[in-house]
DNA sequence: TCTCGTACATGCATGAATGTATGTTACTCG
DNA sequence: CGAGTAACATACATTCATGCATGTACGAGA
């Protein structure tokens, strides 16, 4: 009666599709193991949720749509995540980890603090080209001033970023590569705000995003712009 | 039974309070006229809704809380506004009008395009010191890519701001006060993004907000920073 | 091949928020 | 000063997303 099997075929098709290339391989098993299957759907759900959060925010996010876009139903979602909040927390961690791998690395490679901050700006601009760019800022806007666990988590990451930037600014000032000005913490706030604001405004925009974000970031730091030092486009 | 009159007294008190100074006046009537009363509550509801939208966004905005914070109930709200969407649209118009009076004026007074843009940045920073700073960006983030009427309205205002800035950038480049660079429209996006991002990050922050926002804005435009003018280049 | 645990789907109950209908008080005008 | 209407409050119906409980198919080990 209610035993329709279409959904079963669908998921079968999905996994077969993903597995067919392995048919002749030797490293991975022909049929997906349970752990693989679980990880696969978990990843799909996380990605879908990240897109949704980036577009609609937490409150407007409808879990059925998240699951559907990932190719599942809410059942799968509630099997992998405790509830909406847990899912969002997982997305937040996932996004931050991705950011750290992609942008944090760039920053760590630079020696000069000013160069590190500009690398952060450029890296963030590139990072924001994808469709999950707004996750962080959307969640922070939505939960700012609240006492929600998600808000706390996001705010924690944000504060740690601010600290990191403030530290770099202080170091840059001591090294002489960043001019004096307002308190380092206030400058760090401005720097991050400028980077985030421009990155979002320019996301998906041309190839100009990098240099423009870097320019705004440099302005917030009080650095001379590249137009002053003719021909210098790092 | 359900005829409690406490709420009636409350509203009476509220209006008497606001009217007492007029007791000896001659210009305005001693007792508030209907239109005055209506305008008063409408304004209170608008202000409350603006705060709510700025804090929680559209989706998380609870109309009962809006009404309660304004000193009324949802009944008053639904008497003055057709529905939630209508209220939000009214808030949007109200905020934009306020912005234009406060910031737009500053911009119009400046002769040089570059000076006008920097005046916009500083003016916006000051404008964002109040608690309704985030209304515009919150709504735009929440409805970006949607087909919601509120989103269209907000996006319209945003695009018109972008156009205005792009025009100023073009003029500034012809006048020589703004260096060449990426397409004017892209720079305008970066400029507005930088201004909004820094203004929000620094809202309520110290007296440094103005100069820091101006710095980021100048950076996005490719202008030399004031530290260069002071001769403090590294 | 049989059985058990896991991955997932489906159906239902709950709660919260919206919108509307109805009732009550305050102002206005004859 | 009395009728009529506007400004509100209150009570109710509807909608809808969440969370959970139940049901079914798949994978792993004996």
TrEMBL record, chains A, B:
Q: Which domain of life is it from?
A: Bacteria
Which molecular function term from Gene Ontology is one that the record holds?
DNA binding
Q: Which residues bind DNA?
A: 62-81
- What keywords are annotated for this sequence in UniProt? DNA-binding, Transcription, Transcription regulation
- What's the short name of a Pfam family annotated to this entry? TetR_N
Start-end of Basic and acidic residues biased regions = 1-20
Chain intervals for the UniProt region annotation (Disordered): 1-39
Q: Does the keyword DNA-binding apply?
A: yes
Residues annotated as signal peptide: none
Q: Which residues form the HTH tetR-type domain?
A: 39-99
Provide the protein name. TetR/AcrR family transcriptional regulator
Query: Where does this protein come from, organism-wise?
Result: Streptomyces piniterrae
